[in-house]
Structure to design on (204 residues):
């Protein structure tokens, strides 16, 4: 999914993310196991279309840039996988392995904080967009995961809903985002929680 926010708003949000974040210490060198990604069948079921999964790709996914930023964060080796349906529904999973458990814990909190404050930052930077965030709570999987929702509506009538989660298993952090056109009534919260559990569970 790509929430339809003006480019100027994205620029302002990047700056806001920088201000909101806390500079984290640099990652320690050292090999780590490669995390495993979700499969298409583990996405929230779509009522009329099947999911397709893209390849696992190096780098930070642009789709997360509305709420999540790599500013103030060391140059970790990010990997991601995109998912899509035949309609206007998409998803992405990102993983990153930190140098230590403590750094991974700080990174997970940093990303969850950015998602928690995303709606306020959108409205502050883009007056033609109304945004609302919702907290759907934590999940008892590995070192825990947190699920949140974000709805945006523009003055020209575009309305989008996203579900986002941050989870951690030891030194590895994963962020999952699902989204489509619609509002909170269209959000498959229970199914996305199941997807989040699977994402964190299958990292290793």
């Amino acid at each position: 999914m790509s929430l339809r926010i003006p480019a100027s708003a994205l620029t302002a949000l990047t700056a806001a993310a920088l201000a909101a974040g806390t500079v984290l210490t640099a990652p320690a060198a050292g090999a780590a196991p490669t995390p495993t990604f979700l499969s298409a069948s583990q996405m929230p079921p779509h009522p009329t279309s099947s999911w397709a999964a893209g390849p696992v790709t190096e780098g930070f996914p642009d789709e997360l840039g509305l709420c999540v930023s790599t500013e103030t964060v060391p140059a970790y080796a990010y990997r991601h996988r995109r998912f899509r349906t035949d309609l206007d529904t998409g998803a992405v999973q990102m993983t990153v392995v930190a140098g230590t458990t403590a750094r991974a814990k700080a990174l997970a909190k940093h990303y969850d904080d950015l998602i928690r404050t995303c709606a306020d930052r959108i409205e502050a930077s883009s007056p033609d967009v109304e945004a609302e965030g919702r907290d759907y709570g934590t999940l008892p999987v590995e070192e825990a995961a947190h699920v949140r929702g974000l709805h945006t509506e523009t003055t020209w009538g575009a309305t989008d809903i996203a579900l986002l989660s941050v989870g951690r298993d030891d030194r590895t952090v994963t962020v999952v985002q699902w989204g489509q056109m619609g509002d909170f009534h269209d959000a498959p919260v229970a199914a996305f929680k199941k997807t989040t559990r699977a994402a964190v569970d299958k990292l290793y």
